[in-house]
Write a structure and sequence with these properties.
about 500 residues; alpha+beta; five-stranded mixed β-sheet; 14 helices; 18 strands; about 30% helix
Length: about 500
């Protein structure tokens, strides 16, 4: 079946412009996501320096069977190493993009190439990215592929030592909740809750983290390779962890309800918790004490303490929210900001991002509405030397009758964002096909790409559904996809999405 080719309104390559061959030389994008819960493959290690508290970190129990853990790891590896990079590479344009094998052995590289080639074939030849495949970061060959420096989507531990356009410490900082709370940008009032010093771990080098396993009990010394301080630790590390967890839970318990708690580094809504009732508070405290804090506090070390990865942010709850917006734009090297889109975000009951909706006819007015706050964010990022794509989660709040609404930033995604592609498809959907509304979301489905396309043949052949990412996990039979769907109006779009959901499950990252 021959599908219509997509022409994007612009690409990252065009937005980077001359920067692609600027002082940093020839740039390549590394678009995989980082994982702190476990290694994504034998060649893509667990992030132990740049800690991320995303949904997998929050939901995976401390104790689960090897089989359960392997199943979770496999699904996350496919999302982080294949689906997200493929989705973002769709918007990259004619520039090199680096991708890693979810297996790490190189055995799946051929399969990954086929999947990515099918997806990129939806684009015209001049807008397709040049995807380079490696087993893992240590295998990246820069000179042989005409690359001088890298742009990382996430602060990946394994990229340390490579020439980077934005160094990993700066990139991690700009995406942190603490940086936003101290930036001076318009946001909801928040207070940083930083893990206090423990009298059991104070030293010139180790002020805010536990001692090394070799300085603790026989239990810790015998299990030196474990990530989390053992529950049966009988020494200073176990006492330190219990004291720190107790201190944090006491502080959280004293926070007036309602409130929002955010971890320092999150994405996709993971690590963010809304507390609207005493039950919510009890559930949050249970999650913090049994899963999040044991792992997070155990991960603070002499190598990352300066990044303050254990910082928690407590924020007031929005009183009268009108809309949860996703602003997407690009900061050029000069500091100039290029507006791309403003979309309405779709969140699941746990506050995880599962997609976005866009109205193309509304974009001109939304551009005017969001330009002031976009310029503020852009100027702040430029002051740190950042240039590249950026997303901002912004809540619009009512101020009363006949009063203007206010815009407050609740999160910054200083990287490619999930809704980036939506803003680049106005020509394809609205101008060429009269599909003035569109949505994007990820799915899992028990049928192949070809079977899915055949099921919705009419929608694919008329260009109202575009696959921007797909991976067929042959071992499990599950297929993972990322779709952009267009409709003439909101009702028509809703009906089309409802039909899709009869065959597929919407998922989050």
């Amino acid at each position: 079946m021959r599908l219509p080719q997509v022409i994007l309104d612009t690409t990252l390559r065009e937005l980077y412009g001359n920067s692609v061959h600027g002082p940093e030389g020839r740039i390549a994008l590394v678009l995989c996501a980082a994982c702190t819960e476990f290694a994504l493959s034998s060649k893509v290690g667990r992030n132990s320096k740049y800690l991320y508290v995303e949904s997998t970190f929050c939901s995976t129990p401390l104790k689960c069977s090897r089989e359960e853990r392997a199943e979770i790891q496999r699904a996350v590896a496919i999302k982080f190493l294949s689906l997200i990079p493929q989705r973002d590479a769709f918007s990259a344009g004619n520039m090199p993009v680096i991708s890693f094998d979810p297996n790490g052995s190189g055995k799946e590289t051929a399969h990954g190439k086929v999947e990515a080639k099918k997806t990129m074939s939806n684009l015209t030849a001049d807008q397709r990215s040049r995807i380079l495949y490696f087993a893992g970061p240590e295998d990246i060959s820069m000179e042989a592929n005409g690359i001088d420096s890298l742009v990382a989507r996430s602060a990946l531990d394994d990229l340390e030592g490579y020439p980077l356009v934005i160094d990993l410490d700066t990139h991690y900082f700009l995406n942190s909740k603490l940086a936003l709370s101290e930036s001076g940008l318009p946001r909801y009032e928040s207070s940083a809750l930083t893990v206090p010093k423990s009298p059991k771990s104070v030293s010139l080098e180790l002020k805010d983290f536990s001692p090394a396993p070799t300085e603790c009990c026989a239990v810790c010394m015998s299990r030196d390779g474990e990530v989390v301080i053992p529950e049966d630790c009988t020494g200073v590390r176990g006492r330190w962890l219990k004291n720190r967890i107790r201190d944090i839970l006491d502080h959280v318990s004293a926070q007036p309800i309602p409130f929002v708690l955010k971890n320092q580094q999150t994405f996709g809504g993971g690590g963010t918790f809304k507390v609207s009732s005493r039950k919510d508070l009890a559930d949050l405290k249970a999650l913090l004490s049994t899963r999040i804090l044991p792992k997070l506090l155990s991960g603070v070390s002499p190598f990352n303490a300066h990044l303050k990865p254990a910082t928690l942010i407590l924020s007031e709850m929005v009183k009268d929210p009108i809309c949860d917006w996703g602003l997407t734009f690009f900061v050029r090297r000069s500091g100039q900001c290029v507006y791309l889109s403003a979309t309405q975000q779709i969140l699941d009951p746990t506050n995880a991002w599962i997609g976005s909706n866009i109205s193309y006819p509304a974009q001109d007015k939304l551009r005017q509405k969001f330009t002031p706050i976009m310029l503020e964010i852009g100027a702040w990022l430029h002051s740190y030397g950042y240039f590249g794509p950026c997303g901002a989660d912004i809540l619009e709040e009512a101020q009363g009758d006949h009063m203007p609404t206010t815009m407050k930033i609740v999160d910054l995604n200083v990287r490619t964002s999930g809704s980036l592609t939506l803003g680049l498809l106005k020509g394809h959907f609205s101008e060429q096909r009269g599909l003035h509304h569109a949505t994007c979301f990820s799915i899992s489905v028990n049928m192949t790409r070809e079977g899915f396309i055949e099921t919705f043949e009419a929608d694919f052949t008329d260009g109202s559904i575009v696959i921007v990412g797909w991976y067929d996990d042959i071992s499990s039979g599950t297929n993972y996809g990322y779709l952009v769907v267009g409709g003439t109006d909101e009702d028509g779009l809703g009906r089309r999405v409802a039909e899709l959901k009869k065959f597929a499950s919407v998922m989050h990252f």
